Amino acid sequence: MASGLEAEARWSDRLREAGLRVTRPRITVLDLLAQLGGHHTAEGLNATLSTEGASMTRGTVYNVLDDLVRAGLVMQADRGPGTAVYELARTWHHHFVCRECGVMIDVECEVGEKPCVHGDVPGAVVDEAQIILRGTCASCAATQ
User: Fold this and answer.
1) What residues does each domain of the chain span?
2) Could you tell me the CA-to-CA distances from 29 to 12, 22, 38, 82, 109 in Å, in that order?
3) Are 2 and 28 in contact (CB under 8 A)?
């Protein structure tokens, strides 16, 4: 991970713009997600933080992720039954999940911003829609 000062410089403005206080746990989680790329569980992030000497309680990791998702800095993706995964929120997109190996691949949103799809829910205001495509990824399909 980047040094504390480098990470703080990278994330402080983004946190303030999102209406959040700049805290060490928020900076640490954002920096870790940026460095790892891809999709990660809260438990996996917590384990990585522990191995890198930046451990925090599991509850803190979940609370930080919740704050960052609500502020739009982190995207929570549902890959089906099981644990949610998190990634930096760069552009709104959907996901493909391989039924064979479980790989999760970003799929561009045709509109480019959420909600991207509008359901007919009388009286409701839809602000987000996530589509999960399932099937067999190219690697698994090639081995079959």
Assistant:
1) 4-77, 91-143
2) 13, 12, 14, 22, 26
3) no
Q: How far apart are CA 133 and CA 80, in angstroms?
A: 10
Q: Judge: domain 4-77, CATH 3.40.50.620.
A: no
The closest of 88, 4, 16 to 54, measured between CA atoms, is: 4
d(Cα 76, Cα 144) in Å, to the nearest integer? Answer: 31
Model pLDDT, residue 19: 96
- CATH fold for the domain made of 91-143: Dna Ligase; domain 1 (3.30.1490)
| pLDDT digits 0-9 by tens, 39-96 | 999 999 999 999 988 889 999 999 999 999 999 999 998 877 778 999 998 888 889 9
